[in-house]
């Protein structure tokens, strides 16, 4: 643990000094400030922020994570030639990247909300759910980035896979589902659709938020099916648990690959 | 000190090491030479646990390497390419490595002085030249006064002055009983530094022995010519 903590500390130092995380924080600061200023009531602010969170956080986390791991290649070699456990190194690297990204996002949306004020309690809960979803997505897509960068030796290919994976989850997935439901509209699709939704972390985060917001008009087909099947309460629990699984799965596979990897 | 038995390593379809048996003797400078892509770096990385062998066994100070990492506290490693995280300074990297070791061993900053690195240590590593990074890498390798020094083409990229400073340092460490493993393409350097040579061709040991052995075998007085002669022998 001590070794992991030290690696996290130095990673943080390194990441914070690169301007990316600062830009990322400023982006959220500016966007949420503008939305709070001109976006009317805080529930519509949360909705607008949601769309940014669902698209932008996965993109930045997976790209930044992938680039960072490739970038640290020689540094990893240096550290691996020191007396330390590979597992500790991997954990430290992961937290050292996921943490500043999370902090940047959280600070970027929380600070404007503090001076603009989120009045109603329901809005506050929504706002917290938004932050929670953002954090989930950060950890999930950083873990995916680590898995990709550990598996792909070739940097260009690894980065390509990262971008494609983001494109797939953020944009293509819904299109494919729509196409599928259209093609198979004669069949009962509720259960397969739920399974398919669980396979996309961005969809899950969206549903988690919308179940909390309780705006069925915006839920889309999968969201509506989800709510109908699970109900809001169970739906929230199921989506949260699946999101946790979505962090653990790529993280653990990546760790296993990292332990066996040749440097 | 280090013994390697039947070491095999395959990268995808490429057989890099095809059964290496090697004893690294304590208190000597052991040079590994061979053409490009003959497996020199792979042997070194296997000893460091950076590369996981497909088959075979390595032990360092009679401790078998299977998932252990403690033995690396006795090793100082200087990789072929010295690259570091861009935003950290040399001082910070050293502090990090020291923090990770955390064993209160005595530290050797001699190279910082002899390379005149004091001023560079506080600058972000991205602003340093390739040669200066190489020097920082050397400082880290020698820092913890390790019993074993593993140097992968240590003088590549260094100017003649720095190169001789480093060579003097290697000889000094050898004189104090340290074990050194060294790869290089510069034969005069090997001649100057090493006691024994392992000549590697396509993942197999083609020859091992002392410098005098090589000269006797090939009837050449210059190591460069002797090695060249051996390489020709391999080709035909």
Task: Summarize the model shown.
The complex is a heterodimer of chains A (263) and B (236). With 263 residues, chain A is mostly helical.
Structure overview:
The complex is a heterodimer of chains A (263) and B (236). The longest helix of chain A has 41 residues, at 220-260. Chain A has helices spanning 2-17, 19-38, 42-71, 73-80, 86-116, 121-151, 155-183, 190-198, 201-213, 220-260. Chain A has 10 helices and no strands. In chain A, α1 (2-17) packs across α5 (86-116) and α9 (201-213) packs across α10. Chain B has 236 residues and is an alpha/beta fold. In chain B, the strands form 2 sheets. Chain B has a 6-stranded mixed sheet with strand order 6-7-8-3-9-10, sandwiched between helices. In chain B, strands 2-1-4-5 form a 4-stranded antiparallel sheet, covered by helices on one side.
Which tags fit this structure?
heterodimer, A: 263 residues, mainly alpha, 10 helices, B: 236 residues, alpha/beta, six-stranded mixed beta sheet, four-stranded antiparallel beta sheet, 8 helices, 10 strands, 26% strand
Task: Present the secondary structure layout.
The complex is a heterodimer of chains A (263) and B (236).
Chain A: H1 2-17, H2 19-38, H3 42-71, H4 73-80, H5 86-116, H6 121-151, H7 155-183, H8 190-198, H9 201-213, H10 220-260
Helix pairs in contact in A: 1-5, 2-3, 2-5, 3-5, 3-6, 3-7, 3-9, 5-6, 6-7, 6-9, 6-10, 8-10, 9-10
Chain B: E1 2-11, E2 14-24, E3 29-33, H1 40-48, E4 55-60, E5 63-64, E6 75-78, H2 90-101, H3 110-114, H4 130-143, E7 148-152, H5 160-175, E8 179-183, H6 187-193, E9 196-201, E10 204-210, H7 211-218, H8 223-235
Parallel strand pairs in B: 3-8, 3-9, 6-7, 7-8
Antiparallel strand pairs in B: 1-2, 1-4, 4-5, 9-10
């Amino acid at each position: 643990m001590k070794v992991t903590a030290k690696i996290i500390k130095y990673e943080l130092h390194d990441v914070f000094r690169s301007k990316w995380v600062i830009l990322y924080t400023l982006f959220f600061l500016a966007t949420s400030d503008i939305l709070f200023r001109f976006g009317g009531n805080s529930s519509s602010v949360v909705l607008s922020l949601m769309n940014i969170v669902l698209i932008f956080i996965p993109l930045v986390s997976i790209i930044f994570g992938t680039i960072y791991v490739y970038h640290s290649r020689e540094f990893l070699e240096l550290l691996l030639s020191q007396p330390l456990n590979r597992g500790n190194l991997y954990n430290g690297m992961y937290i050292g990247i996921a943490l500043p990204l999370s902090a940047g996002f959280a600070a970027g949306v929380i600070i404007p909300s503090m001076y603009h004020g989120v009045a109603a309690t329901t809005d506050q809960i929504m706002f917290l759910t938004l932050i929670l979803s953002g954090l989930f997505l950060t950890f999930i897509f950083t873990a995916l980035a680590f898995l990709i960068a550990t598996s792909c030796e070739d940097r260009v290919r690894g980065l390509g896979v990262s971008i494609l994976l983001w494109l797939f989850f953020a944009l293509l997935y819904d299109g494919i589902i729509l196409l599928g439901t259209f093609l198979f509209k004669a069949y009962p699709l509720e259960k397969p659709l739920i399974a398919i939704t669980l396979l996309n972390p961005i969809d899950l985060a969206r549903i988690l938020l919308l179940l909390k917001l309780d705006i069925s008009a915006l839920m889309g087909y999968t969201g509506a099916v989800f709510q109908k099947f699970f109900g809001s309460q169970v739906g929230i629990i199921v989506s949260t648990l699946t999101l946790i699984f979505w962090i653990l799965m790529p993280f653990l596979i990546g760790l296993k690959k990292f332990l066996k990897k040749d440097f | 000190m280090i013994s390697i038995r039947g070491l095999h390593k395959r990268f995808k379809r490429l057989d890099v090491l095809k059964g290496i048996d090697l004893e690294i003797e304590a208190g000597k400078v052991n040079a590994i030479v061979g053409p490009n892509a003959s497996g020199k770096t792979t042997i070194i990385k296997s000893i460091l646990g950076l590369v996981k062998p497909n088959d075979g066994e390595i032990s360092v100070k009679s401790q078998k390497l299977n998932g252990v990492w403690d033995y690396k506290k006795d090793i100082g490693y200087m990789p072929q390419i010295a690259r570091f995280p861009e935003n950290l300074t040399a001082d910070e990297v050293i502090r990090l490595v020291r923090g990770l070791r955390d064993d209160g061993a005595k530290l050797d900053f001699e190279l910082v002085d002899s390379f005149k690195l004091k001023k560079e240590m506080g600058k972000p590593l991205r602003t340093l030249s390739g040669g200066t990074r190489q020097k920082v890498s050397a400082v880290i390798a020698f820092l913890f006064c390790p019993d074993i020094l593993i140097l992968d083409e240590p003088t590549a990229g260094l100017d003649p002055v720095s190169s001789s400073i480093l060579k003097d340092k290697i000889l000094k460490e050898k004189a104090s009983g340290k074990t050194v493993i060294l790869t290089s393409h510069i034969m005069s350097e090997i001649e100057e530094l090493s006691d024994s040579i392992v000549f590697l061709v396509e993942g197999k040991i083609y020859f091992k022995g002392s410098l005098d052995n090589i000269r006797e075998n090939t009837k050449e007085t210059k190591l460069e010519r002797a090695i060249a002669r051996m390489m020709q022998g391999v080709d035909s």
